[in-house]
Specification:
By secondary structure, the protein is an alpha+beta fold. Among the domains are: about 1-30 and about 300-333, no CATH class; about 30-170, no CATH class. Helix content is about 50%, strand content about 15%. The protein contains 10 helices and 10 strands. It has helices spanning about 1-30, 45-55, 65-75, 80-95, 110-115, 115-135, 140-170, 175-185, 215-220, 305-330; strands at about 225, 225-230, 235, 240-245, 255, 265-270, 270-275, 275-280, 285-290, 290-300. The radius of gyration is 25 Å and the shape is elongated. The chain starts with a helix and ends with a helix. Mean pLDDT is about 80; it is low at about 170-190.
Length: about 325
């Protein structure tokens, strides 16, 4: 019963993320990601120890949690049986990322799609973090405070190293472009992560390079009839983008705008709402008649997304209220 309550509460409180994600995936028709041989992501025991000791958090659980395995082993007899079982599961998950398991023997495509061994790290991190807290809280205060300081220090160093790395590298994929995009408030680069792409770009499932048409979107360029438009006046905010451009042709041309295309988008041509579509460059496309025009692209949450947010918000308050009432009744008894 407790497990069912936990699953229900987590699901309801997470609806504000789950529902919009599914809605947008179905709308933009994201294809399956590039699949990699699962065994390529495995480690031998020497590599397993090395990547954890140097705190490579993108590959394993990291230094602090790796050391926590030893601490939990020492304190294992002092913790409840259910937490011992969780510790065994955690060890199995760590071993599942080694060559002890030959993942290529499992023919399920789904495992390749979610890059299964690598994704196990999230569960391992969650389980070991909780178990470490359980083990340390029964020790002297200075011991668990020391572990907290160590964890914060190690993670801070890791974050600083990552920031320096991303700052020095050229723009290639979405996470490396985030700081630049935020500086300019530009709504772009939504579909260029090599893991996923929408079906219109299925021929190019790799990191974008200057020869790729999608590179033009990353450069925040506006094209009209696939010809670069110079002198475009653009303005970006958190939920809208405005472009002023001129079509010198005597017929309507398709404008390729460097902004997201997704459900909840509205495009206005000189104040009148017009139809937009997904371009072959994976951005927003809209027909522009001859002359000088102003295009305004706005974004808002869909009705379904708003409803899911309200459900999540109320669910959070309700579960907190239930917890407080139960805690109060237990205290009074």
């Amino acid at each position: 019963m407790a497990l069912m309550n936990a699953v229900l509460s987590c699901t309801l409180m997470s609806l504000f993320q789950i529902v919009p994600l599914i809605e947008q995936i179905l709308f933009t028709k994201l294809s399956s990601p590039v699949t990699f041989p699962l065994n390529n992501q495995l480690f031998n025991f020497k590599q397993l120890i090395t990547v954890n000791l140097v705190n490579q958090l993108d590959k394993q659980v990291g230094f602090v949690l790796f050391i926590s395995v030893v601490v939990i082993c020492i304190r294992l007899r002092y913790i409840e049986k259910i937490w011992r079982m969780l510790f065994v599961i955690s060890l199995c998950l760590i071993l599942a990322t080694t060559y002890l398991v030959n993942w290529e023997n499992f023919p399920l495509t789904l495992l390749k799609v979610i890059q299964f061994p690598w994704r196990l790290n999230g569960f391992t991190t969650l389980f070991l973090s909780y178990l470490l807290a359980v083990a340390l809280l029964k020790l002297r205060k200075y011991i668990y405070i020391s572990f907290i300081i160590l964890a914060i220090s190690m993670n801070t160093v890791s974050v600083i190293k990552t920031c320096k790395l991303l700052a020095e590298e050229p723009v290639k994929v979405a996470f490396r472009e985030l700081s630049r995009r935020n500086d300019y408030y530009q709504l772009t680069h939504s579909v260029f992560v090599p893991d996923y792409t929408n079906e219109i770009s299925e021929g190019t499932k790799t990191n974008i390079i200057p020869d790729d048409p999608r590179w033009r979107v990353v450069q925040h360029e506006v094209y009209l009839g696939k010809q670069l438009v110079n002198g475009v006046q653009s303005n970006y905010s958190a939920n809208a983008a405005t472009f002023q451009l001129r079509n010198n042709q005597n017929k309507s041309e398709i404008a390729y705008l460097p902004v997201y295309f997704y459900k909840g988008q509205k495009v206005y041509l000189d104040g009148e709402e017009v139809v937009s579509s997904l371009s072959e460059w994976s951005s927003t496309a809209v027909a522009v008649p001859p002359g000088t025009h102003t295009l305004r692209v706005t974004y808002s949450y869909t009705l379904l997304a708003k409803i899911s947010f309200v459900i999540s918000l109320f669910s959070t308050f309700i579960f907190l209220l239930i917890y407080i009432i139960a805690k109060t009744e237990k205290t009074t008894v």
